[in-house]
Design goal:
Blueprint: H1 7-13, E1 18-19, E2 22-23, H2 28-36, E3 40-45, E4 50-55, E5 57-72, E6 81-98, H3 102-117, E7 122-123, E8 135-137, E9 141-144, H4 163-166, E10 168-179, E11 185-187, E12 204-206, E13 208-217, H5 249-261
Antiparallel strand pairs: 1-2, 3-4, 3-9, 5-6, 6-13, 7-8, 9-10, 10-13, 11-12
Length: 265
Amino acid sequence: MTIEIPDALAKELKGFDKLDGKTIPNGPDTQALAEKWGQRIDIFHIPTSTTIVFKAFLNDYSDQFQCDWQSEDVYGRMDPIVQYQGTKRNISLDWTVPAFSMEEAKLNQRKCDVLFRLLYPLYDSKTGVSNAMTISTAPIFRLRFGNLIVDSDRGSGGGLGSAKNSGLIGTISGFTYSPDLEQGIIFDKGGQGSAAGPSGVGMMFPKSLKLSMEYTVLHSHRPGEKPFYQGTEESSFGGSSGAGGSNNPEMDEARGARRRSMGVR
């Protein structure tokens, strides 16, 4: 099954001032920060080529690199035998999505709804059923935030690129949606004076949303050789590692100690 996002909706999802084809009030200063200064969180859903962009009122950001080693203690050895397994990168983002008008609150809610629907896989519509046996495409994304979350193998200098062209490919392992009830709820029951977008009795739109996500990076090129963050290009590594010596006495010594711990001479 292929999900087709209408062009009008696609423009709304990656913009800040359009709702149902109408221009809406949305806090022009914050829009300028997002569009001209790159203060935005850009999420690109690869299977449907859908981009969803939020203003980056960041509360928390962390980038974790974890090296996994398999360790085995052996009788008579002071040090365990260690075998390198891999290095994982996980990004945590927490941000607030404020609304500066009733229309922007509706737009924010719409963006969240579409994003959460894209967290599910696509299914093969030919079978007529939707279960684990008929999944055709898993939810894979690209994520971009300025020069801090970017695929440096694809991105150019600066922090204004898009997730589609230079975002980090990965998976969203968790997403939390939490309306900030202290900021209040906007009601639009329709009728005279109703704002653009959906309306009706019981329709509620939070003035402020708190979103957080856990993102697991899938390395699309050999990691470690190029900078992870733009603006640090001077730290790129050169050369290559061969089977012989590394021209680095400290590295050769460390390799020798590891080989001896494994009983290899």
